[in-house]
Amino acid sequence: MRLLATTIIALRALRRNKLRSALTALGIIIGVAGVIATVAIGNGAKVQVESQIASLGRNVVTIFPGSFSSGGARGGFGSASTLTIDDMEAIRRDVADIVAISPEVSDRNQVLANGLNWSTQVRGVSPEYLSVRAWDTDTGTMFSDQDLRSAAKVCVIGATIVKQLFPNSDPLGQTIRIRNIPFIIRGVLESKGFNFFGQDQDDTIMVPYTTHMRRLNRRTTVSTILIESASPAVMPRIQQDTTDLLTQRRRGREPDFTVRNQLELAQTATATARIMTLLLGSVAGVSLFVGGIGIMNIMLVSVTERTREIGIRLAIGAHDRDIRVQFLIEAMVLSVLGGIAGVLLGTGLSQALSSVTGWAVLVSTNAVLISVGISAFVGIVFGFYPAHKAAKLDPIEALRFE
Amino acid sequence: MSTPVVQLRDIRKTYRNGDLEVHAVRGISLDIQIGEFIAIMGASGSGKSTLMNTLGCLDRPTSGEYLLDGVNVADLERSARADLRNQKLGFVFQGFNLLARTTALENVELPMLYAPRRVSGEEMKRRAMAALDIVGLGKRFDHLPSQLSGGQQQRVAIARALVNEPRLLLADEPTGNLDSKTSVEVMGVFQRLNEQGITIVMVTHELDIASYCKRILVVRDGLVVRDEPVQNRMIASEQLAKLHSAEAEAKLTTTAPAA
Ligand SMILES: Nc1ncnc2c1ncn2[C@@H]1O[C@H](COP(=O)(O)OP(=O)(O)OP(=O)(O)O)[C@@H](O)[C@H]1O
Ligand SMILES: [Mg+2]
Asked: In Å, how far is B125's CA from the nearest CA of chain A?
């Protein structure tokens, strides 16, 4: 096959009509740019969700009060808790491969310091809580096991509290009043920013759960128990063992708790992100398809418009195959160049969008390869019919065409 | 005598439009020897173009035998006929039929791009330039058809027809769209080519254009009714010289009063 010559012919034909070529490619450019940008946004969202889930902690298994799994009109997720410190101690004792474990009791309180006041979430936790949440203090230290045992009036505070109550001074060692009880500040937490529910994670004060349950909010139950597993692999087993243990401790009563592991949460969240990517991507895919039809449309028009040219070529000795391949190459060059331009445009578009909106975007190599591949495919598929039509022309009739 | 370039034996062509049959060619037999220069004349609708298209392997006769260089081409398939057109035949059309927005050079290179054997880019350019030089347009190789006069466009078309060194040059009313002086120029190009041994068959309506050829065929209703050598053959270079001196005189007379 005279592929080289035909390629030269096709490129010359494209160069001869730059405007028509550009318009033909435009459909593909827009389609591919759309795919690239939407998939980049979707991927960015997925990565962000994943990193936020990672910020929840390391290999965390969480026990919530209330039951999801038993149908009917039960109390449900987050209803009055029956989880106790005894439950937690039993888990610590009987379930293997636990690195750290902490309860969490929390309520909102008005807090005072430095003559300023602020309403925030006060959490009762164990010192291990920071390990579970993959968190650490920025300055100072976490309160100790000794503080926990003695229900000491000590706390660590988040970055937002520092900003609100200690704008110009070092909070370490100072006193903060929660429900009028003075607490000594032992440490300031690292800033964690917002979680994916949009909550400011730094707007918090942590106190020993013993202090919280005895002095702040007289309660015998906790709102959650968080377990840090030794590895992701043992998470499902810890989840199962914990469930069994708590069920056994409830002696045949309906289960009034739910045990979740972080993996499940991550899976749900990334599944959501994936559905979003898929949705956006398929909308963009449809526009790519429409771009392909656009190519076919213009190629068909151009076959008619170029009937005389085709006649000349046939008269001069072009085979049917030469004409067909020429039109196919034209369609392919347009769609591949359109695809590349689309990739550049889509990448630029997603960068611009990210800098304007602050969304995370991630241009994936796969999306680039796939959409360029698809556009080449679209070029061949939608170029084929016009090319075939052109090749079948009768030279005399084509030459006579006005 | 060597074998004729073209041997037609009882060529017939019938067009069928529904129930209506048009007998465009009804039995033409004809030999064309190497080095001939033939003008085909005849009334409109007499079948000249049909005959030319058959000779040019653009169309198949309904019946009859056509030997080109001793090879029967009447029932070759489409791509074999395409190769024949490319290698053995050169076609010049009334409407020039150059590719628009394509330089003279690229237009002339076109037949080499479709040649059965690959021609290198360098050789393509060299041969195309040589062909343009033959028709006197070597300096205008990078002009687009829109930047050339009708006569110049027709010369580019002739260069394109020549570039693969065909056995037979066919021209259907090559001067039909040209004024008389430009027509003589084009006939001059044909006469020079013919002197170099190229066989030419052309269609024309004008007797004075036909008188630059060597043999005239007259076609009527699909049959050759006359076939005779040209008497008082005209030489394009002489006619052009006469035209030039006449022009020069005209200029002198028109500019004299102003001077
Ligand atoms: N494709 C076709 N279908 C039907 N009839 C045709 C076709 N082509 C030519 N004819 C008819 O065949 C006859 C010969 O046509 P042709 O074109 O050969 O004439 P011509 O001698 O070249 O005329 P002109 O001097 O006007 O160019 C005419 O009657 C024409 O109508
Ligand atoms: Mg005609």
From this structure: 14
